[in-house]
């Protein structure tokens, strides 16, 4: 297995118990300062999206927030991982197991959990839930949505791509053709066209719902990137979870520019060998959302409703590792100012 199972030094209750959580691919990272007999009393359950901790992208960003909650809030945490191709009932059972074992709050990483969170939260009104990247008008009041303006950060990525492209052709690779990932595409294209209205943007989606494997298939990401490289793309932005790792490999091997997503991918250990070809990354500060929500819960005043982390509030940004975008700082700052002032309205859906 890619990741080892670590058993928690905590007392777990309920008939399902630790064995049930372990069967769901979960692992505990109990903070030694928060034992069964004391500690902060804060027990956070996290249910990851496909790819889990170690994806070098979206889930890892959430994991950093959880690690901060352990270190700074003294939280006991449990991490439950998703499986590619799992059924909706698997997601529900994962959340139920966390409830049974006393975790509160429970944070679901990714819009794929929306239905499961709604159902389990409705059945457990005394437990607080947070879901990242989804906001539904039908979810119960004990669910908080933590969302981001991905289109704004992607707009800046588009500005960078068009500014650096020599061929006049750039690419976008989306993991799953969903409303969320279309926000990345829409912003990226709009940003690129703000620099070069005639730029050619190639778009490829790896899978369509209900197939979410497009977020966890580096082979597909590599193949899609190679297809775009063959068509002349010299900058490729992949919003595809760990599938984007394959895209980065293909682009770097070809000596072109890759743009990472969610985490600063040039600084991720598994991708550092490609850092000279990672132009930038559109960083989505999921870690900030996870920590802020966890702290608000511990402080007794949990964030409720829909909390949006935007460009103005540093919810999204561009990574500067490697200094590859230093020469276009003025362009990027101008675009940032236009967005944060409201002068530029970034589309959230691809324009026909």
What does this structure look like?
- This is BMP family ABC transporter substrate-binding protein.
- Keywords: Cell membrane, Lipoprotein, Membrane, Signal.
- By secondary structure, the chain is an alpha/beta fold.
- Helices cover 36% and strands 19% of the residues.
- It contains 10 helices and 13 strands.
- It has a 7-stranded mixed beta sheet with strand order 1-3-2-4-5-6-12, sandwiched between helices. Strands 8-7-9-10-11-13 form a 6-stranded mixed beta sheet, with helices on both faces.
- Helix 2 links the parallel strand 2 and strand 3.
Set down the secondary structure blueprint.
Blueprint lengths: L16 H7 L2 E3 L14 E5 L10 H16 L2 E5 L7 H13 L5 E4 L4 H10 L5 E4 L10 E6 L1 H15 L4 E8 L2 H17 L4 E8 L10 H13 L4 E5 L3 H11 L3 E6 L15 E7 L1 H13 L7 E4 L6 E3 L10 H13 L11
Parallel strand pairs: 2-3, 2-4, 4-5, 5-6, 6-12, 7-8, 7-9, 9-10, 10-11
Antiparallel strand pairs: 1-3, 11-13
């Amino acid at each position: 297995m890619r990741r080892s199972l670590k058993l928690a030094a905590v007392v777990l209750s309920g008939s399902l118990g630790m064995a049930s959580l372990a069967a769901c691919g979960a692992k505990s990272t109990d903070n030694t300062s928060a034992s069964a007999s004391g500690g902060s009393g804060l027990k956070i359950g996290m249910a990851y999206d496909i790819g889990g901790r170690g994806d070098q992208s979206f889930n890892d960003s959430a994991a950093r927030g959880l690690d901060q909650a352990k270190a700074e809030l003294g939280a006991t945490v449990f991490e439950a991982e998703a499986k590619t191709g799992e059924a909706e009932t698997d997601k529900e059972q994962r959340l139920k197991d966390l409830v049974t074992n006393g975790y509160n709050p429970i944070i679901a990483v990714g819009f794929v959990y929306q239905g499961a969170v709604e159902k389990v939260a409705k059945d457990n009104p005394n437990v607080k839930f947070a879901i990242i990247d989804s906001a539904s008008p039908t979810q119960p009041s004990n669910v908080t949505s933590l969302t981001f303006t991905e289109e704004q950060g992607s707009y800046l990525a588009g500005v960078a791509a068009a500014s650096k492209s020599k061929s006049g052709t750039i690419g976008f690779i989306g993991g799953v053709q969903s409303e969320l990932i279309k926000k990345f595409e829409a912003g990226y294209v709009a940003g690129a066209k703000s620099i070069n209205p005639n730029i050619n943007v190639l778009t490829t989606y790896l899978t369509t719902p209900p197939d979410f494997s497009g977020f966890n298939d580096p082979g597909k990401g590599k193949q899609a990137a190679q297809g775009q490289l063959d068509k002349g793309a010299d900058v490729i932005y992949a919003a595809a979870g760990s599938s984007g790792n394959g895209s980065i490999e293909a682009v770097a091997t070809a000596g072109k520019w890759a743009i990472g997503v969610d985490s600063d991918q040039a600084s991720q250990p598994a991708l550092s060998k490609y850092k000279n070809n990672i132009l930038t990354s559109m960083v989505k500060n999921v870690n900030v959302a996870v920590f802020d929500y966890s702290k608000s819960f511990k402080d007794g005043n949990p964030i409720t409703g829909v909390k949006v982390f935007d460009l103005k509030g540093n919810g999204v940004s561009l990574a500067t590792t490697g200094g590859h975008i230093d020469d276009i700082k003025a362009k990027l700052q101008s675009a940032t100012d236009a967005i944060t002032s409201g002068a530029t309205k970034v589309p959230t859906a691809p324009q026909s």
